[in-house]
Amino acid sequence: MSVAQGSTIFNTQVIDTITAQVNAAQSCAELQALITSRMDSLIATKLGINDQIALLAPLVSLVTAPTNPAEVLTWITNFITGFLEPYILPYNNYSLQLIQFEAQVTTLVAAMTAKANSFEHCTVTIPVF
Question: pTM (2 decimals)?
């Protein structure tokens, strides 16, 4: 039974599968190819996890609200810069990406339609985007 990625802290079946692939290698070249491809993926995963930890680290101090009234202003400032601002940056980026993405897909759909029209008796179904 497979475990969906993200449904546990870490899907250990990924490593188990790679280990089985390594143990089943039939040659040194096949083993090296497995090592190169799988380790690149694992290294990328580790870097991604570390990036997320670095992004979330400033929020750890925000879990406990200050009891000293003098520290409330600092806590609020840290909340804004450490929690709210990081949400705004991706929002802005995604908004721009969506505009570019939709424009590119519109061009792609036009190319699909034009190509279909270049063939005699060609009808294609392009899903509504």
Answer: 0.49
